[in-house]
Protein: Helix-turn-helix domain-containing protein
Organism: Limobrevibacterium gyesilva
Amino acid sequence: MNKFSRDLVQGMKEAADFAEGKKAAARVHVVEVPDVRAIRQQLHMSQQRFAETYRIPLPTLKNWEQGRRAPDAPAAAYLQAISRQPKAIKEALQHG
């Protein structure tokens, strides 16, 4: 068995241990999922306006707000930036 195969098997064992609640050497990265609806409402924007202003597809925004989907890590970071600096993000997008 080559190194790649050994590493793959080891990784699968660690993933299985983690899934079973055992301590494992695996790293866990937790991404805070922002409350998209709260961010939008705090800015007093409709879904349509928020989506257009921040260049988020409207169906994606609706899916996030209705809990059918969750923002991935980059989208979550973008939403956090919007919540903290909405005017700066809006201005940056207008000049881009």
